[in-house]
Amino acid sequence: MTSTIEPAAPPAAAVAELKPIPDQLRSDRGLPLIGRVFDFIKDPLALMRHQWETYGPVSPLYSALDQGVMLLGPDACEEALRNKDKAFANEPAWGKIVGPFFHRGLMLLDFDEHHGHRRIMQEAFTRDRLAAYTARMHPAIEQGMAGWATGPRFKAYPALKQLTLDIAADIFMGGAQDTSRAEMDHVNKAFIDCVQAAAGIVRANVPLTRWGKAYRSRKVLERFLRHYLPAKRATRTDDIFSVLCHIETEDGERFSDDDVVNHMIFLMMAAHDTSTITTSTMLQYLGQHPEWQERCRAEALALGPEPTLPEIEGLHALDWVMKEALRLRAPVPLLMRRAVKDTAIQGYRIPAGTDVMVGVQFSHVMEEYWTNPMVFDPERFSPERREDKSHRYAWEPFGGGVHKCIGLYFAGMEVKAIMHRLLRNYHWTVDPGYRAPLDNHSLPFPKDGQPLHLVRNRSTR
Ligand code: HEM
Questions:
Q1: CB 140 within 8 A of CB 171
Q2: How far apart are CA 82 and CA 95, in angstroms?
Q3: Is any ligand 1 atom within 6 A of the Cβ of residue 335?
Q4: The domain containing residue 156 runs over which residues?
Q5: Is 264 in the pocket of ligand 1 (CB under 6 A)?
Q6: 245 appears as a binding residue in the annotation
Q7: How many structural domains compose the chain?
Q8: What is the ipTM of this complex?
Q9: Any atom of ligand 1 within 6 Å of the Cβ of 272
Q10: Of 32, 146, 184, 324, whose CA is between 20 and 30 Å from 220?
C-alpha cells in the first residue's frame, strides 16, 4: 500500500479571494531559531489565547526552523481535521516531532495507506473485543493497585503511570512472562524517552540529548516486541499483540511482522500517557470536589467489583467527570499537520509546505461554547445541558476526521475501570488551591507527581 498525495489546484478566482496569513508581529518572533517553543512549554493555553486575541483563528507561528500557523476555535480545527480536499498530511508534521521513534504508527500514515491500515486495525477494537479486554483488565488493575502505599503525600501520577504500564503489559502484551520487573522498568523508561523526545531541540541522534536517548529506546522496544512475536503469531490469545498478529479484513488484508511491531509501539505509547494523564486529572478534581467523589463512589459501589463493559458505560457521573477532565486538560492539546498542497482555512490561504498546529485545547475553554469554562462542572455534559453539543468540535480531545482516536472507547473503558476500583477501595483529598504544575515538553503531566492524601476505605469493597 502506498500513499497518494493528490495534486493541488484550487480555482484561480477562489485563490485570489483568499486572505494571506496575518503577518507575525516582531514582538511575537520569540527566540532565534526556535521561536515560541519555550512560551508553549511554559503555558500552552496562554500562548493560544494570545494568538487568538492578536490574530484570530489562523495565526502565524514562525521560527527559523519552522514556518507554521496555529489554528484556533472549533471552526478552524474542524476544517483542518475533516481535511476535505486531502491537503493536510500527518507524517511530515508529526514525523518531525515523534517520527523516528513512532515510525509507521497508524497516526503517522497518510491517505490510502492510512486507510488500509486503519481498516485492519479497526478489527482489534470491535465491541466484542472491547468486552473481552474489559474482563481481562479487572485482575490487572487489582494486582497493579495492590502495592499502593497510602498516606498524605501519595504521588498519584507515577503510581498511575506504573499501573497503566502494568495493565498494558497484560492487555497489550498478554503478559511479558520472560521479562523481569527490572526489565519492564527499563521498557517503561524507553517509552518515556520516546515520548519526551517530542520536545527535543536537537533533532538528531546526538548522545545525551532527548533525541539521542529516544533512538536507543526505540531499539529497546523493538527488541522487546520481536522477542515475543513468534509466540504471538503461533497462538491466538485475546491480548492486542496477538490480535494484531491475526486480524484480517474481509478481503484478507493482514499486518506484516514489521507492521505489528510498529503499530504495537505506537499503540502502547498512544494508550499509556493519555490514559494516565486523564486518570490523574480526574483524581485531582475529585480530590478537590468531595461531593463529586461521593457521587461517583455511590455509582461504583452499586456495581460489583468486576463490572462488564455495558455496566461501565452506565457510570454516568463518572463519565461526565472524565469528559470534564479531558476538557480541562486535553492529553493531546495540539495536533500537528503539514499542508501538502495549497489550500484554505477560514478564508486564509495556506500554502503547500506550511506546518499547521491544530489547537484543540483552546476550543475547550472558549466562552462562546462553555459556561464558566475554567470551572470544574461535570454536569455540563449531562443530557439536560450537553454544552459539548454547542459546536461539533467544541470538545475534541480525541481529534476528528479520519485520524480520530481509534482507541477512544478503549480509553473510556480503561479509565473508568481504574476509577471504579479506586473509588471502591480508597478515598482521597487534594488541597482545593492546588494547581498542577504541568510539564508541557510533550504531553502535559504534573511534574510534582501530583500529591494527594490517599486513604484506604475501611472495608475493601
Ligand atoms: C484518554 C485517552 C486518549 C486520548 C485523549 C487520545 C487522543 C488522541 C488524539 C487526539 C488522536 C488524534 C491525533 C491526530 O489526529 O493527529 C489520537 C489518535 C490515535 N489514538 Fe488515541 N487517545 C487516547 C487513548 C488511546 C488509546 C487507549 C489507544 C489505543 C488503545 C489510542 C490509539 C490511537 C491511535 C492508534 C491513533 C491514531 C489514529 C489514526 O491516525 O487513524 N489512543 N488519539
A1: yes
A2: 20
A3: yes
A4: 12-456
A5: no
A6: no
A7: 1
A8: 1.00
A9: no
A10: 146
Q: How far is CA 226 from the centre of its chain?
A: 25
Find the 9 Cα to ligand 1 centroid distance in Å.
32
User: 152 CA to middle of ligand 1, Å?
Assistant: 34
Query: From the CA of 405, how far away is ligand 1's center (Å)?
Result: 4
Give every CB contact of residue 96 below 8 A, 6+ residues apart in sequence: 203, 336, 355
Q: Is 270 a pocket residue for ligand 1 (Cβ < 6 Å)?
A: yes
**106 located within any domain:** yes
Pocket test residue of 405, 410, 443 for ligand 1, highest count of atoms within 8 A of CB: 405
* CA-closest residue to ligand 1 atom 16: 335
State the amino acid at position 205 in one-letter form: N
Helical (H) or strand (E) element with 349: strand 348-350
Looking at residue 1, its pLDDT comes to 40
- Residue 231 sits in a domain whose CATH number is 1.10.630.10
Indicate whether 6 belongs to any domain.
no
List Cβ neighbours of 290 (8 Å cut-off, separation of 6 or more): 429
Considering the domain boundaries, does residue 47 fall inside one? yes
Atom of ligand 1 nearest to the CA of 108: 40
In angstroms, the Cα distances linking 461 to 137, 225, 458 are 18, 37, 9
Each residue of 386-415: pLDDT tens digit?
A: 999 999 999 999 999 999 999 999 999 999
| Ranges in the chain, pLDDT < 50 | 1-8, 12-13, 461
